[in-house]
Specification:
Order of helices and strands: HHHHHHHH
Membrane topology: Multi-pass membrane protein
Helix content: 55-70%
Pfam families: CLN3
Family: Belongs to the battenin family.
Protein name: Battenin
Keywords: Lysosome, Membrane, Transmembrane, Transmembrane helix
Length: about 210
Amino acid sequence: MLSAAEDIMAIQEGGNVTQQIQNCEDHITSRHCTTVSTGAVLIADNLPSLVVKLTFPFFMHRIPFVFRHLFVCLLQSASYFVVAFSVNVPMSLAGVCFAAFGSGIGEISYLALASHYPALAIAAWSSGTGAAGLLGSFSYAFLTDRSMGNLQPKVALLIQLFVPAVFALTYFFILVVPKDVYQPGWHPRTWIAPEEEDVSFLNLADEDRS
């Protein structure tokens, strides 16, 4: 979403980001300002994630991983749709907030899930979070650059909807969930992880360390 920050602002002000003149100006006679700065996008991208990381660890352990994963995928999809079809800057910023919420919830959830796998999973999670920023930025730049994809930001965002789809399929059809991870059933009473499960997880972790 940060890669699309400047494009979001340009679109809301009636600009066409794929047909802008790229030549340098010989004489600067006026200041190029926007009604809402790119800093607003930075706040929308960081503040929700910060709130999640400060508050959710107090109760997130009662929510099964499968529900967290579904919620993250829904937030990812919603962020792409909202930004792609936004009609004003506040709507675009709301889409960025959805992405930030999904990122914050996903980060604390998948790090906790990785603790149930061998130590290599933690290293893979750390490397993956770093690579995701680079791949996301480069993919958006490739799709919208005039000499490459030359697509409108709306089309580029909709194309990237395959990411949450692959994300969801990976968890349900590829990932082997360990037996010590709480799995809810169809009955609503099982949709909240009991405290006893959390205690058993801690005991298992202590035994592994010893």
